[in-house]
Amino acid sequence: MKIGSPEGKLGILIPGLGAVSTTFIAGVDAIIKGRTAPFGSLTQMATIRLGKRTDNRTPKIKDFVPLARLEDLVFGAWDLFPDNGYESALNAQVLSPADLEAARPALEAVKPMKAVFDRRYVKKLDGPHVKSGANKMELAEQLIEDIERFRKLNQTSREVMIWAASTEIYIEASDVHSSLEKFEAGLRNNDPKIPSSMIYAYAALKSGIAFINGAPNLTVDIPAMQELANKMGAPIAGKDFKTGQTLIKTILAPGLKARMLGVDGWFSTNILGNRDGEVLDDPESFKTKEVSKKGALDYIFQPTLYPELYKNLYHKVRINYYPPRGDSKEGWDNIDIFGWMGYKMQIKVDFLCRDSILAAPIVLDLVLFADLAQRAGMKGIQEWLSFYFKSPHVAPNLYPEHDLFIQLIKLKNTLRWMMNEEPITHLGQEYYNEYQ
Known about the structure:
Layout: E1 9-15, H1 19-32, H2 42-45, H3 61-64, E2 73-79, H4 85-92, H5 97-102, H6 104-108, E3 113-114, H7 136-154, E4 156-163, H8 180-188, H9 196-206, E5 210-213, H10 223-232, E6 235-238, H11 245-258, E7 262-272, H12 275-280, H13 283-301, H14 307-310, E8 314-321, E9 330-338, E10 344-352, H15 355-375, E11 380-381, H16 404-418, H17 429-434
Parallel strand pairs: 1-2, 1-4, 2-3, 4-5, 5-6, 6-11, 7-8
Antiparallel strand pairs: 7-9, 9-10
């Protein structure tokens, strides 16, 4: 496979200059300046085995595939508040005063462009720093102009857009999403089934750049966007960053299934107090998140294949807005399981996590891998990036893979394939030869 050079600046365009975005930008600055190591990032810290175990070839991923250098990243953002990155990070209260001050120049350099925002889709937020236009197509064209100005001002050679803004109300795919022609007509006609996130995605893809969806919004899960991505040669990936509670589920559930242990019930509740928690306090936005969070267990446990173990699984998810907690989210799980002879057991997990701290390295990996995919000519849905998402995109007529460990194998084997290395199947060649 021929992969274009990563030389030149890579523009990272972010709708939503909030807690996740500012933590990401501050962290990249800290890594570049040597104030921290890139904890949580596969692209920067993980190794990849090549060939046989006896070959002892285990380079770091960043030394194996041609990724953009962190020093070449340039940041741009849109937000419905005019605060620069430093002011926004100060308000988010994720970073310590020392870390915030150290990153202040890098954060202050990011001044958000006016956002495309409609409160009908995010009912708990409102702000003054928004665009106006006669219709949604005009708003999309304004975003395309923003992208072009960003390119010229920063002299970038490539760009990636990653959605780090809020969860929108629940929307199901409809006729306006069924083709690019109908979607563009919907933009001109202000169709209510086209939320703000879709306008951003359309602008990105029309500009020929990758779009990554970090929220559970419908956004690029529609034929119209997939048609546009393939037409423009742009990668798309999503959706909803796999950070706290769902990360734990996709670690524990595969282990329970591997041992053929049954599950009667899985109760999950969250408390968080950041802007995300405030948005999810609205029932319509919560439904979007609930669908994203609940899907993983069904696909991992496969109740139609294992009805004795999982057919009657009762799964409930709750999110509670609790302002005192801020960005320090708590995810609590109670799992009722059973084993030999049907005897009951329980597992309880209390994950005291920091949402933006878990999300920031995901953002880094995704923008670097999306840029790699685009330089490799890999357009459309990037299923190999499922590792990072609660609701992974898949090709039509396929079911998503939610098992974190299978997702990691797929990701690494895709990297091996891109670099003309053999995939790792864990079937030793000596056994393969002997039993043929």
